[in-house]
Automatic annotation (TrEMBL):
<dbReference type="InterPro" id="IPR001128">
    <property type="entry name" value="Cyt_P450"/>
</dbReference>
<comment type="similarity">
    <text>Belongs to the cytochrome P450 family.</text>
</comment>
<dbReference type="GO" id="GO:0016705">
    <property type="term" value="F:oxidoreductase activity, acting on paired donors, with incorporation or reduction of molecular oxygen"/>
</dbReference>
<dbReference type="Pfam" id="PF00067">
    <property type="entry name" value="p450"/>
</dbReference>
<dbReference type="InterPro" id="IPR036396">
    <property type="entry name" value="Cyt_P450_sf"/>
</dbReference>
<dbReference type="GO" id="GO:0020037">
    <property type="term" value="F:heme binding"/>
</dbReference>
<dbReference type="GO" id="GO:0005506">
    <property type="term" value="F:iron ion binding"/>
</dbReference>
<dbReference type="InterPro" id="IPR002397">
    <property type="entry name" value="Cyt_P450_B"/>
</dbReference>
<dbReference type="GO" id="GO:0004497">
    <property type="term" value="F:monooxygenase activity"/>
</dbReference>
<protein>
    <submittedName>
        <fullName>Cytochrome P450</fullName>
    </submittedName>
</protein>
Amino acid sequence: MTALAQKPLPDHVPAHLAMALPLFARKVTYDNPQDVLIPQMHAELPPITYVTNIFPGDQPGWLLKNADDVQAMLRDADNFTKNGMGKWAQNIGENWLVIPTEADPPVHTGYRKALNSHFAPQKMFAMKEQVRERARALIEEFKDKGECDFIADFSEKFPIFIVLDLLGLPQERMAEFLKWEKELLHSNDWEVRGNAVRSVKNYLMEEIEARRVAPRDDYISKILTFEVDGRLWNDDEVLGHCFNLYIGGLDTVTSLLGNIFNYLAANPDKQDELRANPSLIVLAVEEFLRAFAPVTAFRIATKVIEIHGQTIMPGDYVAFCSPVIGRDPAYYEDPQAIRFDRKAPHMSLGSGIHKCLGMHLARLELQIAVEEFVGMLPQFRVKDGFKVPYFVGNILHVPDLHLQWG
C-alpha cells in the first residue's frame, strides 16, 4: 500500500513514519479507494504518519488517522494556523488570504460575523425552489434518454449554476470556469495551478470593479458593503472571499455528488429505500457526507507540538483527510456500512471556528439532487460495460460516471 520516502527527511521525522501513500497519488485508479485504500490505511497505519506526497506538488505533511485527533486539531487555533494554508496567493507571488478559510482569530471572528447571516439556514432555505428548478431542468434534459453522463450532464453543472446565480456571474462562461477550477484543484503542477489562480483572480477583480462602478442585486455587490473592525473590507479581502466561493462552490458538491451517485447506482436497494420513504433523505445526506467526503484540508503548526509521541515542528503541515476520518472504525461502528439511521456526527463540513461557511447550501443542494433523481427517474445503475474511474488526491472524486435506467 505504501512506498518509502525517497527525499531526505527533516531531522525530527523518523524514517519509519515517512512514506508516500497511494490515496494522494493524484491519478486515476479503477479500485474504489473508499472500499480498498482507506480500510487498509486504518488497518495498517500508525495514528500519525509523515506523508511525503500529501500536499499538491508532492509536498509533505503529517496525516492524522483518527477522528478524535483531528477534532482536537480543528478546535486548536492557538497551535495550528490556516494562514496561507492553500498557497494560492503565494504561488503567484502575492499575499492575500482566502476569506474566511485562511484567516485566524481574532480577525476571523470579524469576517464570520459579517458573513454568517448571509449563509444562515433561513437564507439558504429561501433558495430551495430556485435550487430545485435547476436540478429538475437538468434532469429533464436526459430523463427520457434512458442514460446520462452524470458528471457532465448533472453534477458539474448543478452546483455551479447555483453559485453563479448567487454571485451574479454569467452562466454562459461555465465551461471556462470549469477549466480553471480543474486546473486549480486537480492539477499537481504548480505552474498550471498558478496560471489558473491568475486567471480566476483577474476575472474576479474585473467583476468586483464593475460592481464598484455600478452595484447590482447580487452577492458580490453585497460584499463591498461588509465591514470588519469598523471599516469596509479592502480589495484583497473582497477578492479573497470571492475566490473562496469560487473554489468552494465549483467543486466540493460536484465531487460529493459523483461519489454518492456512484454508490447509489451500485446499490439499487438503497435507491428504493429513499424512493419509498423520501423523509429519509435528510438523514441519508448526513450519512453520505460522512462516508463520501472528498476533501483533504490542512493546518500549519505554529509551535512545537507533540502528537502520539511525535514532535511536530512549526511550519509543518498537518492534514485533515475527511475521506479517512469519515471511515474511522475507532469512531464509527462498522464505518463501511451505509446506514440511513446512523445519526452519527461527522466532520466532513469542518469543525470548530472554521466549520464550512456554505454548509447549509451544500446540504440543500445534496438533498435536492437526491430527491429529484430518485423522484424523477426509475432505478438507475452504472451503464453496462462502463468501468468507473476514481481520482485519488486531495479531492477524492469520480471524474466520469455513466448511468442508465429502464
